[in-house]
Task: structure prediction
Amino acid sequence: MNGRISSLRTWILIFALALATRMKADPVDWVNLDIGTGSGPIGYGGTMPFVTPPFGMTNWTAQTRQNKVSGVSYKYEDTTISGFIGTHQPAIWMGDYGYVTLMPEIDDIKIKPEERKLGFTHSDEIARPDYYSVWMNAGGSRKIRTEMTATTRCAYLRFTFPANGSSSVVVEASRPGVAGFAHVDAAAQEITGYNPDRMDSNLGPMSLPNFKGYFVIQFHKAFNGSGTFGPTAGQHAPSTGAYASFKTTEGEVIEARVGTSFISVEQARQNLKAEIPRWNFAAVQQALRSSWDEKLGRVAVEGATDDQRRIVYTALYHALLYPRVFSEQGHYYSAFDDKVHKGESYNAYSIWDTFRAEHSLLTLLAPERIDGMIEALLQDYQEGGWMPKWPNPSYTNIMIGTHADSLVAEAIRKGFKGFDYNLAWDAVYKDAMTPPDGDTTRRWADREPHTPYEGRGGLTYLKTLGYVPTDKTAEAASRTLEDSYDDWCVAQIAKALGKTREYQFFLKRSLNYQHLFNKTTGFMQARNADGSWASPDAGWTEGNTWVYTWAVMHDLPGLMQLMGGKERYNSELDQHFSGGHNVHSNEPSHHYGYLYDYSGQPWKTQAKVREIAAAEYANLPSGIDGDDDCGQMSAWYLFTAMGFYPVNPASGNYMIGSPLFNKMSLRLANGKVFTVSARNNSEKNVYIQSALLNGKPLTVPVIRYEDIVGGASLQLVMGASPSGWAADWKPVALSGLVTQE
Result:
C-alpha cells in the first residue's frame, strides 16, 4: 500500500510540475514553427520557421534546400542544412530577393551548397520565433552548432565549433548566374556585399539598376584568414561570396552580427548600429522574445487543449509576419521607381489572398500599423502608377482584381485617418476606370514596354458590356465577379468622401455580377462578347463555377434573390459542401462556411465552420492545408476560433459562427478587452442556443467592428442540437440601395 501511495504522490508531483510549467509558459512558447513546414495528410508545406520580429523586413531560417520560385528554403522532411539565410521570400510560389546566406564549416572551404551541407535531426533543433538552434553533424563525432536571433532588419548568429584544424564561416552573397558582390575587410573584421536577384520577376527582366539586397556582417573575433570567390574571366563560379577563418578551440563560439538593407551597404551598417549596437546575444533574443510576447499576449484562450493552443498561437505568429516592413530609419527604397524616398514603407502584400481576413485581423491586433500599410500602397501608386496587387518587391502581375481597393475601403470604414483620403480616392478611381492598356499618364509600361502592369484586365469590355467576356480576356468570369466587389469598395470610399454621384455609379456597377448568373443552371457562368454563354468550365481563376457562384461577398442577399430565394440558395450551398467543391486550401472558399447565416440556417454555419477547422488545421508539420498565403489561412482559423468572420471585410461587419473554445479574449491597443465566452462549449455542443451582447439579447448573426474595439462582451450558450437562434434575420439586397435612373 505504501508503495502505491508513494507512486501516486510521484505522479501527482509530476502532474503539478507539468501544470506549473504550462501556467508559466509565455505565449511565444506555444508557437510551433514546424506547423506548415512539412507535407502530410493535411497540407504540403509552404511556411518556414522564421526567426524575426512581427512584420520583420528580413526573416532568418535554416536553409535545407535552394531558395527558388515555387519552393522554400526549409522543408521539414529534409535532413541536411547548407546555410542560414536572411530571406525575403513571402510564400511558396513567390521568389526570393536580396538574400544572404552564412554557413559554418571546418577543414577546407566549401562554397557549393551540395558540398557544404551537413546532416541534422529535429531532435537537435530548437525553433522559436525569438531563437533558433541546431547541432549539425560535421563528420565522425564532430558537431557544429548554429544559433540565431534577430531584429527587424538584422540578425545575431553564434557558431560553436568542435576541435579541428580550421574553422570558417562562408558567406554566399548570390547564387550561380547572378552577378553579386562580396568584399572582405579583415582589419574591421567585416564582410560586406550585395546581390540584385529578384527571382519573382513575372514581368520579365525589369530595368531596376539600383535594386540590390545589401548586407554587412561583423565578427567579434579577428580573422585567421579570409577571401572571396566568384566568377572571373573565362570561368563560371558556382556563386559569389566570401569567407572568414578563425583559430578556435573545442567549444569556442564565433559570433556574427548581420545588417541588411535595400538602400546601401552603409545603410545596412547603420541599421546594425541602431538595432544591435553591442555584442550581447541574450539581450537581442530577450528583446525579440518580448516583442512577440506582447503581440501574442493580446489573445487569451481558455478551454483549449495543448494542441489547440499551439495551433492558435502559431496561427497568430504567421498572421503577424506580413506585410513586411520595407523602410529603414526614415527612408525606403522603392522598386516602383527605383529610387530612395523619405518615409515609411511595407511590402509583400498577397492582397488577393489577404484582403479577405488577414488585414481585417490586423485592424484589431496591429492597428498602429494600418495607416503605414495603406500609405505604403499609395506611395506605390505615386511612384509606379498603380497600387500593386502583389508587390515582391515591385509589380508581379500575379492574381486578378484590384483588391487594394478593399484595404483602403476597410481602413476608411474603421476610422483610420493617417493617410491622404483624396490620394486614396485617386488611386482606387484609377483602378476602377483606367484599363491596363489605356493609361497614358504614368505606366509601368513606360519603362517595361514588353509587359505592362495589369490592374483590372478586360476593364474596357466591362465598361461597355457590364462583364468581362471570356473570348476576349483570360479568367473573365472571375474578373467580373471580383471587380464587382471592388466596385462596391470604391463606392464606399466615394460615400465617405461625400461623392454622392460616384457612390451611386459604383454601387450600381457593383451589381455587374448579375450578368453572369445563368438562371437556367442556377450558377455563375462566363459569357462571350456577343452575350452567349461560354463553357461552364471557362473563365475561372483557381476555381470553377462551384467555387465562384457564392463569390458575391458584398451582396449575398441579392444573390439569394437571383437564385429564387432561401430554399434554392440553401440547397445549392448544401450541394457545394456535400459534393466536395469547398477547397479550403484556396482563398475563394474561405467565407463559404458562413453563408448560411444569410439564409435563415445559421446552425449550418455553426456546424460547418467547426468541421472545416478540425479538418484543415492541426499541430503537425502538415497542419495547414496549403501554404499560409501571407497569413490568410491563419487569419481564417483565428477568426473562426473566436466565433466570427469578416465575410465582407470592408463592411466592418463580422458573421457569427461557432467559437472553438470556452473563452477567447482580445486585449486591444486602446486598452479595452473584447471577450467571447461560450457556456457548455464542447466538440458536440457546437450550436448556439442564445446570445447576449453586453448583457442584451443578440438575435442577428452579426457583430460590428465598433462592438469589438469598444470592448464588448459576447456571451453564447451552446448546445448539441440546432436552435432557431438568429434564423429570422433578413439582410437587405444591394439593389434596394441603388438609385434607378
